[in-house]
Every structure is written in structure tokens, then in C-alpha cells.
Design brief:
181 residues, mainly alpha, 2 domains, 38% helix, Aspartate Aminotransferase, domain 1, three-stranded antiparallel sheet
Length: 181
């Protein structure tokens, strides 16, 4: 909902609550005066946490309704999905998931072959003013684009063109064989 970080809530079915311990231990953990619910004791009191972020929720809900955010999000998903195979083809890679609403939201990760993912990310920013994550997972590398209301086809065209140039002019991206799932 585009609210500040940490502005969320945890809901767990009552019958599953005993299986969940808090990520942060705070006041209610092993309380000297336990309440009726160990789950609430463990999760409710978070010490010196600043709760002001939660005050943004009503304004965020109003904003999303006024700007028909379900329609905006659908258009963002569509734009991301329409370009997915274009990027996979450029990188000679197979998509890591089916390209559908069931598997993709507004982001798409493309397997890439790069010896230096951190340098590639910095190069995209320094030479093209493109901020995009280039990540490692185990022995694989990925570039991920994320589409929101402020992105357009032109943004994806710019990224695609930059990757083409980098493949042609540098050793930061390799091509020539399929990157397997």
C-alpha cells in the first residue's frame, strides 16, 4: 500500500498461533504476568517501537481508492509480463516461472550470465541512470525489473537497449547459450 516500512500486521489462524515465535523478543516473552494468549504476549509488546507509521494507513487506503489502484496494478502486471520474453530472449534465458498473473506480480527476474553482478548494476546506474537490482542466488545471477505507476514501456525499452549495448561493448554480460532454470 506504499506505506512506510514496518507498517504491517500479522494475522495467524488461532489454531496455528502456538507454532509461531516472534522474530524479535520483547516485553511479553516469558512474561511474569501472562495474559490469556501466549501469542499476544509474545508478539504484542515491541518495546521502543515507533508506531507513527501506522497513522499513514487511512491516508494510503484513501489514496489507493481515489486512484483506482487495482486498475493501475493490473496495467503494471500486464506491462511487466508483455516484456518478459523479450528480456529472456535477449539474455538467451528461460523464464524462472510461468509468465502469468498466478506467478508474477509487478516484478520479473531474468537469469543472466555475468561474472560481476555488482559491477553490472553499478554500470547500469553510472552510464544509463538505470536503477535495477542485479542479484546473486547461489551460483546464479538475476536482473529484476519492477513496474509501478510511474514506469512506462519507454523505461523497459531503455533497459533493454542498455543491456544490448553492454553485451556488445563490455564483458559484464555474456551471451551465447541458454541460461537454464
Amino acid at each position: 500500500m506504499m506505506t512506510p516500512k514496518g507498517c504491517s500486521f500479522l494475522y495467524i489462524k488461532k489454531e496455528l498461533q502456538p507454532m509461531f515465535d516472534p522474530l524479535l523478543i520483547s516485553w511479553g516473552y516469558e512474561s511474569v504476568a501472562p495474559s490469556h494468549s501466549r501469542f499476544l504476549d509474545y508478539h504484542q509488546g515491541q518495546g521502543t517501537r515507533d508506531f507513527s507509521a501506522f497513522l499513514t494507513v487511512p491516508a494510503a487506503i484513501t489514496f489507493l481508492k481515489e486512484h483506482q489502484w487495482e486498475t493501475v496494478a493490473k496495467a503494471c502486471r500486464s506491462l511487466g509480463q508483455q516484456n518478459a520474453m523479450r528480456f529472456c530472449n535477449l539474455m538467451e534465458a528461460e523464464p524462472i516461472s510461468p509468465i502469468s498473473d498466478e506467478f508474477l506480480g509487478q516484478m520479473f527476474s531474468i537469469p543472466i550470465r555475468t561474472p560481476q553482478p555488482e559491477k553490472l548494476q553499478r554500470h547500469l546506474f553510472d552510464h544509463y541512470s538505470i536503477e535495477v537490482p542485479v542479484t546473486r542466488q547461489d551460483n546464479r545471477n538475476f536482473i529484476r525489473y519492477s513496474i509501478n505507476a510511474f514506469n512506462s514501456q519507454e523505461d523497459l525499452d531503455k533497459l533493454h537497449g542498455a543491456l544490448q549495448e553492454i553485451m556488445a561493448d563490455t564483458a559484464l554480460l555474456e551471451s551465447g547459450r541458454k541460461v537454464a532454470r
